[in-house]
Amino acid sequence: MAGFILPEGGQEPPSPSDLQHAGSNGKANGNHALVSAVDAQANHLKVGVKESPKRKKASKMAKLKQSKLDARREQWLSQVSGRKSPPSQVSSNGDVSHPCAGETTIDESFPAESTTPSNTSGNGTASKAVSFCTESKGHSNGSGSDSNGHSKDSSNGYHHGGEKPVLRRWQTQPALRSLHDEEAAPKDAATSQAPQQKAQKAKMKKGVRPQEGPESNEGGGDADDWEAAAEALGVVVPESGSETGVASENGSHSHLAGDESGVSTASEGASPRTQNGYLTRRLAPEVPDACARHHHRAGAGGAWRQDDSHRPGTLPRLEKFNSFPVVPHNHTGSMWEATISRTMWGSSAAPATCPICTEELDLTDTSFVPCPCGFRLCLFCHHRIALDDGRCPGCRQAYVKVEKVEKYIQVPRSHLVRLKV
Amino acid sequence: MAQANHVQTDIPRSPNAKSRVGMEAKPVDSHSVARRLQSELMSLMTSGDAGISAFPEGDNIFNWVGTIKGSVGTVYEGLNYKLSLKFPTDYPFKAPMVRFETPCFHPNVDQYGNICLDILKDKWSAVYNVRTILLSIQSLLGEPNNDSPLNGYAAALWPNQEEYKVVLQKKFRETESGGVSS
């Protein structure tokens, strides 16, 4: 896996475009299969949460998760919008092995659920879900040959996107996976064989990790997963073992993705292509990230630190949570609030008292910046000065600028006059 | 001016907005002025600026007496000047009246002690305070504005610093002895 991602390091995250290609290919079945896979997971997870006794905790985590989700969505949206190349173009010269690699990387996040029947029995109510979701779930719980057949069905004549669910379930079965990989990517089998083998090795290493056991045995494994996800979301994962750290963080990613798709399932009547495109966007960028993380992890061992230089940007950061855009509460037209910090009086530290009358500044006063120089004063003093002098005490410039703007906003007639002029 | 018109339309929060009729006759809250002056006194006493000092004269906090020492390196070095500061009731929106009580031979100070300083007139800003006023006057002593003199003789004499110093010392001694006698 690590060796695989390195050769294409210079490229833009390859899998999003490829997956998008899969999504926009117009093959309805392929799209459905892709959506169904994610939806199945979403249902899987959601049901697990519903049945878990730690429901309150989960809802709290859901909030936390939602905030992170928003931040990441923004991030990815900006990335995707920045990349103007149409998906079809990418697919024409792109490697077919990319989607496979990408999918398998995502798959790491679903080790226990995919292979253990106990987990699915706990989530038996998933059958309530949409038909194709349960279908894919059935495949995922079925034997290797079963899913193999499914993959053939879905991928027959369609793009690899259709094989995604199957790949997903195979990550703990290296032999079958390699078989499937050859099927899935016959065009570049020769070129991508070596990296894939490396990836398999990584998989096998992962397969024996200690966390899998308890996860698969527990009925409420999902709830635990949620906690792990929350840990990964909130702070740096304190676990000592590198592999478990990877698992929990991956778990968080997958939970996010899964839940997102679950949300989209609710509005399922909408076009599946949009969902698909959105999902690919959501899921795909994690691919190189996960690879890189694994690569790094192999050497270092240990959870990512906040200040780690190699820390992937997709991981949650505490600063992000703390720096959610807080819109300053403006009562008047202090539209230069942002630029003031560099001016002489500064906006960062609003004085506790009015420099003119030494009265304490209340909330309204502190958010009141009547002059671009950033000089703050209380509304009373500002009113006095505006009546008399009309110049800012801080810079001796007339307050006219503010007044004009305020006036034009308030009085439509003068606004019209201004338009004429 | 259009500014005066629209000023009355906005900022409805001020309590004075309703009661006020014109620009004059401002019912100033003397308490807030006293509060501001007290805080200025506190900051002035804690700042410990060398060469300037001020304190209210008697019980009236609106009348202060200040002292300024001539800056080192100027012809006014070693000379102490007494000033009076009278604060209007709409201070700090209006500048205080500052005069030299000690007669001062200076291009920008007339025979009555009136000071020609822009920040005490049109360049006044509500952020100025006693400390900044006194520091400004102190620096004015060493750097007069000879283009708009109140004391033409001093302004004419200023380029010749040696002679200026002689005249200044003489005048100061005269006023000192005169002040003692009176």
From TrEMBL, chain A:
Ranges of Low complexity composition bias in the record: 114-127, 139-148, 189-199
One GO cellular component term: CCR4-NOT complex
InterPro entries: Mot2, NOT4_mRING-HC-C4C4, Znf_RING, Znf_RING/FYVE/PHD
Segments of skewed composition (Polar residues): 76-95, 241-253, 262-276
Keywords: Metal-binding, Zinc, Zinc-finger
Gene3D superfamilies per UniProt: Zinc/RING finger domain, C3HC4 (zinc finger)
GO biological process: protein ubiquitination
Domain RING-type, residue spans: 354-396
Chain residue ranges for the region called Disordered: 1-224, 240-276, 293-315
Any GO MF annotation of the entry: zinc ion binding
Pfam families: zf-RING_4 (PF14570)
PANTHER family: CCR4-NOT TRANSCRIPTION COMPLEX RELATED, CCR4-NOT TRANSCRIPTION COMPLEX SUBUNIT 4
Protein name: Zinc finger RING-type domain containing protein
Organism: Klebsormidium nitens (Green alga)
Source organism phylogeny: Eukaryota, Viridiplantae, Streptophyta, Klebsormidiophyceae, Klebsormidiales
UniProtKB/TrEMBL annotation, chain B:
Gene3D superfamilies the UniProt entry points to: Ubiquitin Conjugating Enzyme (3.10.110.10)
A single MF term (Gene Ontology): transferase activity
Swiss-Prot/TrEMBL keywords: ATP-binding, Nucleotide-binding, Transferase, Ubl conjugation pathway
Active site: 116 (glycyl thioester intermediate)
Matches recorded under PROSITE patterns: UBC_1, UBC_2
InterPro entries, sorted: Ub_conjugating_enzyme (IPR050113), UBC (IPR000608), UBQ-conjugating_AS (IPR023313), UBQ-conjugating_enzyme/RWD (IPR016135)
Family: Belongs to the ubiquitin-conjugating enzyme family.
PANTHER family the record matches: UBIQUITIN-CONJUGATING ENZYME E2
Protein name: Ubiquitin-conjugating enzyme
Native source species: Klebsormidium nitens
Lineage: Eukaryota, Viridiplantae, Streptophyta, Klebsormidiophyceae, Klebsormidiales
